[in-house]
Amino acid sequence: MIRKFDFLIIGSGVAGMSYALKVAQSGKGKVALICKTTIDEANTDKAQGGVASVTNLKVDNFEKHIHDTMVAGDYISDPAAVEQVVKNAPDGIADLVKWGVNFDKNEAGEFDLHREGGHSEFRILHHADDTGHEIQQGLIRAVRADKRITVLENHFAVEIITQHHLEKEVNRHMTDIECYGAYVLDPDTQKIDTFLSRVTLMATGGTGAVYATTTNPNIATGDGIAMVYRAKGIVKDMEFVQFHPTALYNPSERHPAYLITEAMRGYGGILRLPNGEEFMQKYDKRLSLAPRDIVARAIDKEMKIHGIDHVCLDVTHKDPEETKHHFPNIYAKCLSIGIDITKQYIPVVPCAHYMCGGIKVDLNACSTINRLYAVGECSCTGLHGGNRLASNSLIEAVVYADKAAEHSIAHIDEYSFNDQVPEWNDEGTMTNEEKVLIAQDMKEVGQIMSNYVGIVRSDLRLHRAWTRLDIIYEETEELFKRVKASKDICELRNMVNVGYLITRQAIERKESRGLHYTVDYPKHAYDQK
Fold first, then answer.
1. For the whole model, what pTM was predicted?
2. Among the options 272, 292, 371, 513, which is catalytic?
3. What is the model's pLDDT at position 46?
C-alpha cells in the first residue's frame, strides 16, 4: 500500500508535535504524525523537572544561560546552537502556553522558577514535578484538535527511503542523498506500507533502552538514529550518554526506572551515604548541585568504594508540607514502596537517561540527507556538547522544531513525490523460537552496554563491548533477511546499531571529556581505576 503526505513526521514527543502544529498551520499540504505506540508514550512524558528559559530579567539574562550551557557541555557545545536556543527560548515558552501547556505560577502571577544543577539562576519553568506530562498532554490536545494532522498510532517506521531503494549507490560522503519517505509497519495488516513524502522529520527520541536500566520508556531504542545511520546520514557525539544521577533505587522496577528530578536537589536535597555521611564536597565545590556528569561519577565512585548498591537523597530537613506540594508525584511514588520522603532518605542510583549526540543537523535542523530534518533527542544540534545542562532538552526541541518548520515550509514547493520507489518485499516467516532469540539478544545488548559502556569506561571494556555487539549484529542481520519484519526484530537491529555507534565513538575519543570518562585517559582528580 502506498500513502502520500507532504509532511511525514516520525515520532510524537514535544519535537514531533511542535513541528506538526507549525507546518499544519502553513496550509502547505497534508501532515502525518507516526507514533511507534500511542501518542502519549514518549520521553517527553517522563520529564519531571521542567524547561529552562531566561524569564526573570531582574537577575537573569541570556549571557548567563549561554555561559552555564557551555560550562556544562565542557566547551564542546556549538556556540551558535547555544545562542539560538537560549535567545529563542522565551518565544518557545510562549508557543507552549499558546498550545495549552500550564506552568506553575507564584502568588504574584509570575512563573514559579526552580533552579537545577549547573544553572547559576532560577530559570526552570515547571508544572509540579510532572512537567513533561503536562507538555505532552497539552500538545496532544492541540494536535487532536487540528484536523489537518493525521495521527497514526502503533505504526513503526522500519527504514527511511533514499536513492538506495532505487538501486543507486549511496555512501556517507555523498552530499545529494535524498529522503523520499519511509517504509512503515501497519499494526492491523502486519504489512509494511510505503509512505511517500516531500519532507520528512525524524523525532524518534532517545536511546536509553539500549542500557539494562534507564529512566526512558521501553520504546527508546534509538530507531531514528539507526535508520539515518543505515541510510548513510552522519551521526555524531554518540559517546556522550547522560546518566541521571538520581533514579529511584528499586530493584523490582528497572526498566524504566523512576526518575527523582534534579529539581529536588535544587530545592535543597543533599546527597548522602546510607549512614548519613555527605560526600559531594570531595568532588565539586557546587556539592549536590554540580552538573550531572560530575554527580553521577561521584555516586558511582562512592558505591564502588563502599560496596553499596545505592546512595541517598535527603530532604528530611525541609518543610514536609512544602515538599509534598512541590513534589506530589515523587512523594506518592516513594510512599508506595514504603518510603516517606519527609522522614526518610530516598535511595538513588545513576541510570541511563539522555543521549546528547545523534543525527547531525544544522541550525535549521537539516540533516546531511536532503529533505530530512531531525529534532529533539534523536538529533545532535551541538547545544549539549559533552553534557546536557538540566532542562535544556525540552526547549531545544521546541526551538528547533520551529526552525525546521520555517525552513521546510519555505522549501517544500521545490520537492515532489518520488513515484519510482518500490514497495517493500515482505517475504519471510517468524517462529516463536526466533522471538525468544530476539528477546535474549535485546537483554544481552543491555547488559553489554551497562557493563562495558557505562558511566566509567576503559579501552578494554569498550573493545569487549565492540566484539560482543559485532556477533549480535551479524546474527541479527542474518535473521532480519529471512524473516518477516516485525517491531521486535526492527528494534533489536536499531539497538545493536546504536550500541555500536556509542561504543565506536567512545573508542575514538582519546580523552575524558564531559559525559565520556575513561580510566585510560583520566582528566579528573578522582581517577576511578
1. 0.89
2. 292
3. 62
